[in-house]
Amino acid sequence: MPVQQIASLDEAAVLQLHQLYQREWWSQGRSLDETRSILQNSSLVFGFVEEDGTLVAFARVLTDFTAHAVIYDVIVAESHRRHGLGRQLMDAIVSHPRLTDVRAVWLCCLGDMVPFYRKWDFEPGDEKLQWMIRPRQTSDMEST
């Protein structure tokens, strides 16, 4: 199944990404407007499409291009998993010329995905550091 890498999404691909988001536990419930905002505000976008333009893999990066980069939303369509597409996606990210000099590239994953990401020299974080989250509060939503 030949695929082509893309660095931006047209409207059809945005709609397809939104559908991919709805199938993952960590991105379910994102609105189409949120999907568009996420794309607009990402530093780099990585996608793979089939010859007919169907989006089958996606990831994005937020970065200052110097000290830190964070990889988000690594998704491969279920029908295309276990065919090396996730590997192609990660290869594209870690070899991107604007990321090669970034001091630290971060990502967050479930424990069962650690062996997959170790192939690109990702290691579990320093126990002194911990990812922290501040979910949007109801009061935050009311003030916007």
List the topology elements:
Elements lengths: L2 E4 L4 H12 L9 H9 L3 E7 L4 E9 L4 E9 L8 H10 L9 E4 L6 H5 L19 H5 L2
Parallel strand pairs: 4-5
Antiparallel strand pairs: 1-2, 2-3, 3-4
Query: What is the averaged pLDDT score?
Result: 92
Strand proportion: 15-25%
What is the number of beta strands? 5
Please name the fourth-level CATH homologous superfamily: Gcn5-related N-acetyltransferase (GNAT)
Radius of gyration: 16 Å
Major β-sheet profile: 5 strands, mixed
Q: What is the structural class?
A: alpha+beta
* H/E series: EHHEEEHEHH
Helical stretch tally: 5
Determine the CATH topology. Answer: Aminopeptidase
Output the strand order for the largest sheet.
1-2-3-4-5
Give the CA-based shape: globular
This entry's quaternary arrangement is: single chain
Which percent bin holds the helix content?
25-40%
Low-confidence stretches: none
Intertermini distance = 45 Å
Number of domains: 1
The CATH top-level class label: Alpha Beta
CATH architecture: 3-Layer(aba) Sandwich
Keywords: Transferase
Protein name: Acetyltransferase (GNAT) family protein
Domain N-acetyltransferase: 4-137
Organism: Maioricimonas rarisocia
